[in-house]
Every structure is written in C-alpha cells, then in structure tokens.
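Project standup — Tuesday

K.O.: blocked on the structure for the chain from last sprint. Re-posting the sequence here as requested.
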Amino acid sequence: MKDKVKYILELPVEKAEEGLDKDYDILGLKFTENMEKGIEAFKKLLPRIKKPLMLRGSGNDSVDAELLPLLAQLADRKCIIGTATENNYKSIVPSVIKGGHRLIIRTPIDINLAKEMNILTSDMGLGLDRILTDTDIGGLGYGFEYGYSIMEKIKIEGKNGDKYLNVPLISFAAEETAKTKEAKDEKLSLYLEIASASAVKAAGADYIVLTKPEAVSILRGLE
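H.V.: unblocked you, prediction finished:
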C-alpha cells in the first residue's frame, strides 16, 4: 500500500505563529534574503513548534548557500532543508549531512538533470534516502502539463530500478499557481491551489507544499 502524501503548510517565518494550530503533516518556514530578521524569528518560534519542520531559503542561490547551513545548524530536530541547486549544493550538503537532515534538490523540468544532481549529491555522502527531488513546475497550462509528465517519468524510472530516481518527489505547484494572474482572486486562488495539488498528487508527488490551511483540510477530505 502506497504511503499517504505528506502535506506541508508553508508560511513566512515571521508569520508562522498564525499556523501553529492548523492541520498539516509538516510545517514549512519560508525565509527571505533578510537573514538576520529570519533567523531571529526562527529562534523565537522554534521552541513552540511541535510538528516536523521544513526550512526553505530565499530562492537566491548565493544567499541560501550561507543561510541554509546556518538553519541546519540551528535546528533542534531533523528537518527537511531546501532548496539546493546546481549552483549552491556544494555549500549546503555538508551541513545537511552533519545535522542528519533531508535535502530538497531543485532542477529545471528535466529528468536527466534531476538524476545528475542526485548522483552528484550522493557522491558527496548524502544518502539517497535523504534526498527529495523537486523537478519544478509551471503554475497553469502548458508549463504545468510538461512538469506533470516529468514527475510521471521519474516515478516510472524509479520503479523500474533506477536508484538515483527512486527518491521521493516534492512539489511546490501551489506556490507557482499563486503567481498567476488568475490567483489574484482570493476564492479562485484557493481553488487553483487545490487543483494543482490534486494534479501533482496524481503524478506521484510524495510531499505537497501548500500555502493555505483550507487547502490542506479539503485535500484530506478527498482522500
């Protein structure tokens, strides 16, 4: 029997206090390029967090090369750390290994690049069982469909014996959906988040990152 999908509710670290009592499997804390402010908020919040954690950087490779090792060191439990890319993974992997954490590796929507990064990262000593693959994905339309197909291909190759692709998939489809002009409507934004999450779940995502507590509750009700 396939394990249930894990739902991650991701919130800005400065506002995450609002989500401590919500329903989710993992709490995601999103940081910005203001490292000092984010780390200060994280230190204050950490003792109050009872659920498993995902700590995600700013998306700026150079900033995250410094920020993510710090977060890996400050964390008082084993976390999911993200996101490493081909530009900064060498700076991030050692701290992830030392802390016993798991690492999200993001590559452009390409199965070969995903496999290559998993090989390079595992060669540094991070076990494949501690790697989460993020293939990236578009918000709507053609970009979303192409990203969906790559996720499917990775799942198929992993089940067919490719150990470097037989790793969990994590999807930030809801984040991408929120960037679309259609998502400016608050009600429609919730519908789009649920639709995108349902789609990547069908594609084989093991971890789905959401931004709205209501979306988590609705998706649980559909299981």
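K.O.: great, moving the ticket to review. Helices lie at 35-45, 61-74, 89-99, 111-123, 141-159, 173-178, 186-203, 213-221. The mean pLDDT is 93.
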